[in-house]
Hints:
By secondary structure, the protein is an alpha+beta fold. It is built from 14 helices and 21 strands. The strands form 5 sheets. Strands 5-4-14-15-16-13-17 form a 7-stranded mixed beta sheet. It has a 6-stranded mixed beta sheet with strand order 7-2-1-11-20-19. Helix 8 (352-365) runs antiparallel to helix 9 (374-400). The N and C termini lie far apart (49 Å). The mean pLDDT is 94.
Amino acid sequence: MSTADPTGDRRIRSVVIIGGGTAGWMAASAINRLVDPGRLKVTLVESAEIGTVGVGESTLPHFRAFNASIEVTEADFMRATGATFKLGIRFENWGAEGETYFHPFGVHGAGNEEAPFHHYWLKASRTADVGSIDDYSLPAVMARKERFTHPASEPGALGSSFTYGYQMDAGLYAAFLRGRAEAAGVTRVEGRVVKVDQDERGLIRSVTLERGETIEGDLFIDCSGFRGLLIEQTLRSGFADWSHWLPCDSAVAIPCALSRAGTPYTRATALKGGWQFRIPLQHRVGNGYVYSSEVMDRETAAAALIGRLEGDMLAEPNHLRFKAGQRTRNWIGNCVAVGLSAGFIEPLESTSIYLIQKAITTLIELWPDRMFDPVDSGEFNRTMDMEAERVRDFIILHYHATRRDDSPLWDHVRTMAPPDSLAEKIELFRSRGAVRLDREGLFMHPSWVAVLLGQGVTPERHHPLADKAPDARLIPGLAGLREAIRRAAAAMPAHDDALARSQG
């Protein structure tokens, strides 16, 4: 590849994406539509012989913005992917056996309090039975009643206090994006990469396929999965290992038939060897057991999952191995890693697709020219490192803030020293109910409050501002809010009815 151009034009003219799946086709779709349309050539290389992992069937609300950016309508997306609505995640047995809490996509309370709402709830709960914090979250109550409607547009209205994501078939989503991307000019090349050629600067010049074809490019996107074909096998990025804090390194996934109406939430149930996910779609349920190979073998994990399925198996068990961590550098020279090639934390809070989306949007914001200024890659790496570390800490919180003691896995995570950044957050909340937010970070105040309180991290004191509301006024006020939320949710359509209406 030469950066010389007689016209002085340094713009990227060709992008080569190695690997398909969710990451590859999301990258192809966004870059082809949003970066220099009509001038940029986008080529995606994938092999039908190399299967995709298919992680990330449960999404966060941010995903809706990605679809909107590439002009995908909600109705088209949901029809194509068998998607359902998602209001949050129901956690079972994480604090202790038999305990349940909800991580909602929305605020607790009405959103107009002087102090964060949980301080009023804490104050009142010391002298009266005011119910759980979940009772004061509209999306949590909607999920409990299996209701759904789109958020209200009026600022300050109770119906505007939440947002939503989706539960979808990741394989169908990749196929849907592929069809749209190819129709919009993206070239797909079938083949397995067997050779990577670099120039004198160390930049990737081309890749050679098994059948001998050579594909040149200016910018290369590594979506090759755990292998990290370009970023690791060629460029030797290195890997930050987080498995001491996140020891689950294996998963088995099995789809099964639906046994009941769809639910607008994902369920995560803690078990002795790890945890089980349940992701209900329109046409099936996605199930998985994420576990530590130190405490359980794959046959035992598969048998345990099969025994907990709600319907007939629709496919044989799919076994995965992974290591929690992040590439030391996700952008080197003219190569950017996106998706599993950049790292993997685990699917507990549905962050895989978000991190794909974040990498793509950050790359587009920092779009380079063919000189590949290290300032651009440096800022990208800083941003993605911070994002991954914040996600890491939030996931570790679920493990560390547990009282389970029924297996070596839970004994380890309960008693381990967490990262300093997480330890400080936990102690600050335990001391005074405060949540310190970082400049970068996916999960905001309501998410931290939901998990900390849900898993039994109870603050020693509440904010003094809550004392401005005397119990004689506060407790009836909470009862009124709780009833208003209950009635608002009860008046909404059933989730499946809302789902049918959304698709016309």
